[in-house]
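[audit] Reproducing an earlier prediction to check determinism. Same input, same settings, fresh worker. If the tokens differ from the archived copy the diff job will pick it up downstream; this log only records the rerun itself.
[audit] input (404 residues):
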Amino acid sequence: MRLADQCVKCGYCLPYCPTFRLYRDEAESPRGRIALIQGLLTGELDDSERLGVHLDNCLECLACEPACPSLVQFGALMDGVRAERVARLPRWRRFLLRLRLDLLSNPRALPPLAFLAGLYRRIGLSWLLTRLGLLRGGRLAVIDGLARQMRWPRQLRLRDDGTVSQFEPEVDAEADRVKAALFLGCVSRGLQPSTAQAALDVLRRLGIAVRVPDEQTCCGAMHRHNGHTDAADALLARNRAVFGQPEFADCTVVGYASACVAELQQGLNAVELCRFLVDAHWPEALSLRALPDVVAVHEPCSHRNLLRDTAAVYALLARIPALEVVSLDGNGTCCGAAGTYLLEHADTAQTLADDKIRHLAALAPRYLVTTNTGCAAHLAARIRAAGLAIEVLHPVELIQLQLK
């Protein structure tokens, strides 16, 4: 209630809210949702299906927060009310919801999921469903896109001491080197399996000693944004314990998925990879090959509205000679991925992505870069469905490709 009562109902947030712009419904705006939350908490409104639809439709993109003159912490407010509503559910429903999130966020579940996705591709189910006209929209189209993106998690090329075996630079004593502990996340290992290796390779070429703790786990963002705060706090505490071990005491925790970094920063001094690389010392002998192409930068909501440091992406890409770096039109609006949102609200997610695809079709870049795993998978699926020849990468992958 304290958070909700900060809102003065001025309406400055309305033009920035994707669902309000889409539906033109007051209940689909931040201001409207806050009014619903106040009604729910005071008992003036029942926790009905209709109220739940409006609250669940929120992407938690947080585009409203930078626009709010009253500095309403809308993200904390939505996480709180979702936790309140989950707590009111019957125990069996809470168990099933938690089980699904635990499955999605468990790195050990990735190999079976990757196997099923590979089987789906090999037997031609995607082709058959397309021919039957079943992949034109809806949840099935989203699942098809994720299945075509999912790959077997790669084994990182590491030495026994946890550092990378490739590209050993000429450096002084180990004690004098900058050290980083790399956070891998969970689903990103299957949806972006090449990003972690790219991060390792680039960091090592800069002379940075990299360690990758085996005991690390999901950051907890999926649980938190779906109302399971206790599970999110437990995952955060586990990562804090892992990265707080003595062997990582002199390491900076670095993550390449912007949403994970934003969650980790609630309990760890984590740094987003692009920012870390921009601030790092680059040896004079290290240079990048020229790339006379166009790259479009997608700014995920997690990077733009939570970390609020998308400038680091542009600064990093500026190191590639001859590369034309362009901000994707409509970066201020969510693409629709939003964690598990694209699975639960597939039609809205695809509608929001359509604007991005139209802009990409007009721009026709060779590459699209983004720092959010879910956004990368979602946009790659929509790009493929639109028949566009655009490769979706993490910015560090483009840097890796141009290393001499």
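[audit] rerun output stored. Observation attached for the diff report: Confidence is low (pLDDT under 50) at residues 160-173.
[audit] end
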